[in-house]
Design goal:
The complex is a heterodimer of chains A (about 120) and B (about 110). In chain A, the strands form 2 sheets. In chain A, strands 2, 4, 5, 6, 9, 10 and 11 form a 7-stranded mixed beta sheet that branches. Chain A has a 4-stranded antiparallel beta sheet with strand order 1-3-8-7, with no helix packed on it. Chain A contains no helices and 11 strands. Chain A is an all-beta fold. In chain A, strand 7 and strand 8 form a beta hairpin. Chain B has about 110 residues and is an all-beta fold. Helices cover about 0% and strands about 50% of the residues of chain B. In chain B, the strands form 2 sheets. In chain B, strands 2, 4, 5, 6, 9, 10 and 11 form a 7-stranded mixed beta sheet that branches. In chain B, strands 1-3-8-7 form a 4-stranded antiparallel beta sheet, with no helix packed on it. Classes of the chains: A mainly beta (about 120), B mainly beta (about 110). At the A-B interface, strand 5 and strand 10 of A face strand 5 and strand 10 of B.
Chain lengths: ~120, ~110
C-alpha cells in the first residue's frame, strides 16, 4: 500500500525558515518524481514544486522560486521542502504527492499545516 | 499560464441523481485533465486521469469526458459517500487546479 506521511509543519514567524519532510513507503521511491502541493485555508489547491526521480531536476512555481528548495533522499525514501524567507501567504496545508510518468499526482499524503504569523 | 474555470462552485443533489461537474481551460490542454475528490479534513484522492481513465479502485459510477478545453466529470448515480469537494487539474503545461465544486446531499 502506498503511504506518504508529512511531518514538521508548525507556526513560524515571517521571514524565518522551516523544513519539513514526507516519508514514503509501499513503493520504490526512487522510481518516481515527487511534488509538493499546498492549500491555503478555505482556498483551492496550488502546485508548489516538483523533483524528478533522481533529484537531478527541480521545478518551482514563480512565487516560491529562490525561497523554497525541494530535495529528496532516495536511500531514506524521504522528500523534503526547505522554505526560507516565509511570508504570510505561504500559510497552507502542504501535501506531498507521488507523480506518475504521465505527470499527474496519483497518491497524496494527509498534509502538514504551516502557519506563518508573528 | 493556463487558467481553469470550474463550475458549478456548489451543487446539491439527491442520492441516485446523475451529477456533472465541468472544467474549462483557457487554452487547449489536449487530454491532460484529471479529477480529484477531497473529503473534509482529508487529502485529495485521484478519481480520473487524462480525461477519462479511471484510477485504480475508483467505482465505475465516476467517469470523465471531454477534450481540448472543455471537460466533464460525471457521477452516474450519486451515493452518500460521494459528498466531497471535487477539483480538476490540468497538467498539459505546468499545473493548474480548478477552484473546486462542493457537492452536498439534498
Amino acid at each position: 500500500e502506498v503511504q506518504l506521511v508529512e511531518s514538521g509543519g508548525g507556526l513560524v514567524q515571517p521571514g524565518r525558515s522551516l523544513k519539513f519532510s514526507c516519508a514514503a513507503s509501499g513503493f520504490t521511491f526512487s522510481d518516481y518524481a515527487m511534488a509538493w502541493v499546498r492549500q491555503a485555508p478555505k482556498k483551492g489547491l496550488e502546485w508548489v514544486a516538483t523533483i524528478i526521480y533522481d533529484g537531478s531536476s527541480t521545478y518551482y512555481r514563480d512565487s516560491v522560486k529562490g525561497r523554497f528548495t525541494i530535495s529528496r533522499d532516495n536511500a531514506k525514501s524521504t522528500l523534503y521542502l526547505q522554505m526560507d524567507s516565509l511570508r504570510s501567504e505561504d500559510t497552507a496545508t502542504y501535501y506531498c504527492a507521488r507523480t506518475t510518468t504521465g505527470w499527474y499526482f496519483d497518491f497524496w499524503g494527509p498534509g502538514t499545516m504551516v502557519t506563518v504569523s508573528s | 499560464d493556463i487558467q481553469m474555470t470550474q463550475s458549478p462552485s456548489f451543487l446539491s443533489a439527491s442520492v441516485g441523481d446523475r451529477v456533472t461537474i465541468n472544467c474549462k481551460a483557457s487554452q487547449n490542454i489536449n487530454k491532460y485533465l484529471d479529477w480529484y475528490q477531497q473529503k473534509l479534513g482529508e487529502a485529495p484522492k485521484l478519481l480520473i486521469y487524462n480525461t477519462n481513465s479511471l484510477h485504480t479502485g475508483i467505482p465505475s459510477r465516476f467517469s470523465g469526458s471531454g477534450s481540448g478545453t472543455d471537460f466533464t466529470l460525471t457521477i452516474s448515480s450519486l451515493q452518500p459517500e460521494d459528498v466531497a469537494t471535487y477539483f480538476c487539474l490540468q497538467h498539459n503545461s505546468g499545473y493548474t487546479f480548478g477552484a473546486g465544486t462542493k457537492l452536498e446531499l439534498k
